[in-house]
Amino acid sequence: MIEIQNLTKRYGDLTAVDDVTLTVQPGTVCGFLGPNGAGKSTTLRCLVGLATPTSGTAHIHGRPYHRLVNPAVQVGTMLDASALHPGRTGLEILTQGAIALGVERGRVAEVLDVVGLTKREAKRRAGKYSLGMRQRLGIGHALLGSPSVLILDEPANGLDPAGIRWMRTLLRDFAEQGGSVLLSSHLLHEVQQIADTLAMIGHGRIVAAGTLDELLAAGEELEDMFLTRTAATSREGAL
Ligand SMILES: Nc1ncnc2c1ncn2[C@@H]1O[C@H](COP(=O)(O)OP(=O)(O)O)[C@@H](O)[C@H]1O
Ligand SMILES: [Mg+2]
């Protein structure tokens, strides 16, 4: 269970995250949708202790990440798929992760199988992987400790349509076993396929939240709002 309450994070004069409240119940995949610069990564970083909230709370299983017992086993994270060591093979990265987490080495082969990387691919250096393969490896890394919570920042970035369907199935299965998933994306069509609840963020604030069905019922209005905000942000970015 993920519970973010009235979370605000300021960097100097900039309010990156503005009074965000968001709950992800066990058994659900929540898509955190918003244009670049909206505050998604900062929110996720607050959840895993990489950023300190200015005010409000970001809890997992009722407490901040750093107060969890063995947090790396309870919470699987992928905050930046490109951060995986480029000079190591996928197999080495996962093996090292397994050792660090204290899980059996046999888990590495299981995880490779789950994320659909072949033995041959696993023996290549991560620096030679396509973005899609890095995402698979990153998700495999997040799954190593058999966590009950997954926090994934833009995990579908670089995946082709088949890859997105694969991720949908993987995260659905994870949720069906009682897991909670919070994943971010800046693309509506991407989260629409993967998530069952959505929280939309723009300029640090939640602008809409609900089940996918509820939000899709709002239909064009939702899309318009999203597109308008995306356009506004890219204009700002261009200045
Ligand atoms: N460490 C930081 N210092 C200063 N500003 C930051 C920092 N991290 C993020 N920001 C700013 O906070 C805003 C939200 O960024 P971010 O959370 O990365 O958005 P998103 O992930 O939705 O693209 C942006 O304006 C970004 O420039
Ligand atoms: Mg981001």
Folded structure, characterized:
This protein has 239 residues and is an alpha/beta fold. The chain has two domains: 2-61 and 148-238, Rossmann fold, CATH 3.40.50.300; 84-147, no CATH class. The protein has ten helices and nine strands. The protein has a six-stranded mixed β-sheet with strand order 5-6-7-3-8-9, sandwiched between helices. It has a three-stranded antiparallel β-sheet with strand order 2-1-4, with helices on one face. Strand 8 (197-202) and strand 9 (205-211) form a beta hairpin. Helix 4 crosses helix 6. It is globular. The relative contact order is 0.19. Residues 232-239 have low confidence and may be disordered. Bound molecules: adenosine-5'-diphosphate and magnesium ion (MG). The site of adenosine-5'-diphosphate has 11 residues, from strand 2 and helix 1. The site of adenosine-5'-diphosphate (ADP) has 11 residues, from strand 2 and helix 1.
Molecular shape: globular
Order of helices and strands: EEEHEHEHHHHEHEHEEHH
Can you tell me the CATH superfamily of the largest domain? Answer: P-loop containing nucleotide triphosphate hydrolases
Mean pLDDT: 90
Report the major sheet: 6 strands, mixed
- The CATH level-2 architecture of the largest domain is identified as 3-Layer(aba) Sandwich
Structural class: alpha/beta
Strand order of the largest sheet: 5-6-7-3-8-9
Number of DSSP strands?
9
What is the domain tally?
A: 2
* Cα-based radius of gyration, to the nearest Å: 18 Å
| Heterogens | adenosine-5'-diphosphate, magnesium ion
